[in-house]
Amino acid sequence: MLISSTVHQPSGPPVDAATVAADIQRQTDRREMQCSVMALAVKLGLIVLGCVSIVRLSVAYQERLERHGEIDAVVTVETVKLQTLQQRFDRLFSIGGEKRLMSEQDQWIAPNRMRIIWR
Q: How far apart are CA 99 and CA 90, in angstroms?
């Protein structure tokens, strides 16, 4: 928008200083209004950007919590398995552990037998 320092009036009666000052003031007010609207648009854009970022962060946080729950469940199951195996291992090295191991292993071959593997 081109703004001139003088107001062009058709040839006619001379323009007084008050009219020129009023035109300049209107142009200044219009420029200030345009700048204010642009600043408001930038602020609204930043607010929308912030809201979208918060929504995306909350979705990512929920996904992370769900994954943490799944991993926690797996760790709990594996911890129970580990404790069971540790107890079994401890029982094997206690008094009479060899007999317990042999009784648990029914697929063992007797010492006087020969193992045959078919291929």
A: 14
Instruction: Tell me if 118 is assigned to some domain.
Output: no
Tell me how far apart the terminal alpha carbons of the chain are, to the nearest angstrom.
Answer: 92
- C-alpha to C-alpha distance for 71 and 79, rounded to whole angstroms: 12
Give the structural domain span for 67.
17-101
pTM for this entry: 0.51
- pLDDT tens digits along 51-82: 999 999 999 999 999 999 999 999 999 999 99
Q: Structural domain tally of the chain?
A: 1
Do 15 and 9 contact (CB within 8 A), yes or no? yes
CA 74 → CA 53, 61, 68, 69, 79, distances in Å?
Answer: 32, 20, 10, 9, 8
Q: How far is CA 72 from the centre of its chain?
A: 20
